[in-house]
Amino acid sequence: MRLRNKPWAKEMINDNLDLIAIQPENMQGKWQDRFAKKQPLFIEVGSGKGRFITELAKQNPQNNYIAMEVQEGAIALVLKKQVELKLPNLQLLLANGADLSEYFAESEVDGVYLNFSDPWPKTRHEKRRLTYKSFLKQYQYILKDDGYLQFKTDNQGLFEYSLISMNNYGMKFDEISLDLHNNEGLNLNNIETEYEEKFSKKGFRINYLKAQFKN
Predict the structure, then answer these.
(1) Annotated catalytic residue within 15, 18, 33, 118
(2) Contact assessment for residue 27 and residue 21, using Cβ atoms and an 8 Å cutoff
(3) Which of 114, 178, 119 is closest to 143 using CA atoms?
(4) Is 154 annotated as a binding residue?
(5) Is 110 part of the annotated catalytic residue set?
(6) Of 101, 135, 111, which Cα lies nearest the Cα of 28?
(7) Residue 22 is assigned to a structural domain of this protein
(8) Distances (CA, A) of 114 to 8, 43, 133, 165
(9) Which of the four pLDDT bands, split at 50, 70 and 90, describes residue 7?
């Protein structure tokens, strides 16, 4: 997802540094200090406009959440929501997902969410996919032993690639669905992203998996 430049974004970010971190390299092992209380910590890598992560935080006050985006315009939209909501269990992070191990300490995180990530379909761009082995290595480092990775996409090619990539990395799959919205076997309180709602209404199937790293 690419968003137009938001002229107001930088000023809003600078005015709300209690809600958003812009120098995460100083935060390894200290993220709980930014929340009202210490609770299990979950990250969404690539939060888009923020519907998923804000709703997740509202529904689960017993957990802490971080919305992570590399685009200033996108994270500013999430920040706009959070300025209104003031959820005590939600923080924002403007940073690149390829550097997670520089921002989070080993075993600091309980779960990672990837929702409708850019598929980067060209072979030469494989290393940019958020389920490429170098990204999986980062997730493994920051996740606790019982932590999990949850992934949703409407892109069949990316989903098939991700299954192979995770399997080759030695991950174990807890749940897999090739049609999430019509899978009654999953006991899942699915929160739709803006993108998910739009494309599922057009008939696109939503692929879903939940996986863990073998210890």
Answers:
(1) 118
(2) yes
(3) 114
(4) yes
(5) no
(6) 101
(7) no
(8) 27, 9, 15, 15
(9) confident
Q: Is 152:176 a contact under the CB 8 Å cutoff?
A: no
Chain segment 14-66, per-residue pLDDT in tens: 999 999 999 898 899 999 999 999 999 999 999 999 999 999 999 999 999 99
Q: Say if residue 118 carries a ligand binding annotation.
A: yes
The answer to whether residues 71 and 5 touch, using CB atoms and an 8 Å cutoff, is: no
The reply, when asked if residue 131 is annotated as ligand binding, is: no
Report how many domains make up the chain. Answer: 1
Expressed as residue numbers, the domain containing 165 is 38-213
Which residue type is seen at 142? I
Q: Look at 181 and 184; give whichever has higher pLDDT.
A: 181
Buried b (16+ CB within 10 A) or exposed e, 71-97: bbbbbbbbbbbbeeeebebbbbbbbeb
Domain assignment present for 24: no
CATH number at residue 43: 3.40.50.150
* Assessment of whether the complete model's pTM goes beyond 0.90: yes
Question: Considering the domain boundaries, does residue 125 fall inside one?
Answer: yes
CA-to-CA distance for 24 and 192, rounded, in angstroms?
A: 28
Residue 12 located in a structural domain: no
Please report how the helices 51-59 and 72-85 are oriented relative to each other, as an axis angle in degrees rounded to 10.
30
